[in-house]
Amino acid sequence: MRYSLIAFLFYLPSISFSQEMPISSVQALQKIESTLQKDAHNIVYANDWLERFQADSAFIRNFVKALKTPYSFYYPFDSVQNISKLYAPDSSFRIFTWQVMKDYTYYRQRGAIQMRTTDGSLKLYPLFDVSEFTNAPIDSIRTSNNWIGAIYYKIILTKFNNKKYYTLLGLDENNARSEKKWIEVLTFTPDGIPQFGGNYFKYPSDGIKPPQPAFRFCLEYKKDAGVRMNYDPKYQAIIFSRLVSESPDEKNTYNLIPYGDYEGFRWVNGYWVYVNNPFQNIIFDKNQSDLPMPILDDKGNRKEKVLEEISKKNIEKNQQKKDSTQQR
User: Fold this and answer.
1) What 3-state class would DSSP assign to 92?
2) What does the CA dihedral 257, 302, 250, 309 come to, rounded to 10 degrees?
3) pTM across the whole model
4) For the chain, domain boundaries
5) Tell me, what's the pLDDT at 248?
6) Does residue 13 or residue 159 have the better pLDDT?
């Protein structure tokens, strides 16, 4: 978990601003940044779960203190690793997300939305993850107080009828057997209050995707299966791996893996509308290294040997991660 997550966060995009901050604010934030850097490191790397949660609590206290510094919105916190820091494409807000792990069965996300203000004052909406307390995470519009947690790695800005929609793509490591990737549409009320989710998805039911109506979209799949989900501006689509079960007799989420094909969503008149082939007539090189190995042949039959090889690699990868953690 730790090493894949760190690599994942290191490649998140950043935005630079021409806004000049008061020297006093820069100096104050530079002074506290080293403390935040240490806390964020321990959230992931501390060996004992209690130490990780203590580091998380310390980070939250020190981070809020830092954000209270005038014009902190423009300070990038570049040296604070293991924390996702995303600015909205229109720079109206930024969102911080991270996670704390008790063990391989328990992960919880943390987060906050910082709004841009003209006078440099702090306007902050803490995000409280209630995933462990709900059996229906896709069933409703939610607020910052009952957020379905994820570590966000992409914000997509779309518009319809003069209203802005911010679509968030996120990862949740979930538990020891499965992971989740989320598509969450964030909007703001006329009073500026953030709202998560809504009736923004149109797609056919297939037994793998969430049943409709879905107020947020989720793919849950086998741990470390390498499922891809991202926005490609070239195709103006959110493109994600098509999943299939490793076992012909089961559709449990911890058996779902990608099989070398993709599907997606395009924004059409206020909805993310399903597209079966987001690449249209694009043909990929069969030797392209970043695509998963197809596990269905041209007739749609399962390649059992390929499935066995993928399963073997996943087992070996999980064992290596557990061994490296025990050695620390």
Assistant:
1) coil
2) -50
3) 0.82
4) 1-87+98-112, 129-328
5) 74
6) 159
Angle at 57 between CA 169 and CA 44, to 5 degrees: 55
**C-alpha pair distances (Å), 243 with each of 94, 149, 254:** 32, 22, 11
Query: Residues 129, 148: contact at Cβ < 8 Å?
Result: yes
pLDDT band, residue 21 (cuts 50/70/90): confident
Q: Which residues contact 68 (CB under 8 A, 6 or more apart)?
A: 122
Q: Which amino acid is at 147?
A: W
Are β-strands 178-188 and 163-172 bridged in parallel, bridged antiparallel, or unpaired? antiparallel
More confident position, 255 or 328 = 255
Both tokens of 135, joined, read 């059996």
Closest CA to 96 of 60, 131, 71, 43: 60
Helix (H, G, I), strand (E, B) or coil at 29: helix
Helix (H, G, I), strand (E, B) or coil at 313: helix
Cα–Cα separations (whole angstroms), residue 327 to 27, 275, 320, 323: 39, 46, 11, 6
pLDDT for 18 beyond 50: no
pLDDT digits (tens, 9 = 90+) for 273-327: 999 988 864 444 444 333 444 444 544 454 556 556 655 665 565 555 555 545 5
Angle between helices 23-45 and 49-67 (to 10 degrees): 170
Radius of gyration of the chain (CA): 21
DSSP 228-271: -EEEETTTTEEEEEEEEESSTT---GGGEEEEEEEEEEEEETTE
Q: Residues 100, 52: contact at Cβ < 8 Å?
A: yes
Q: What token pair was written down for 249?
A: 């007799």
pLDDT at 170: 98
Give 6's pLDDT tier (boundaries 50, 70, 90).
very low
Residue 34: CB atoms within 10 A of its CB come to: 11
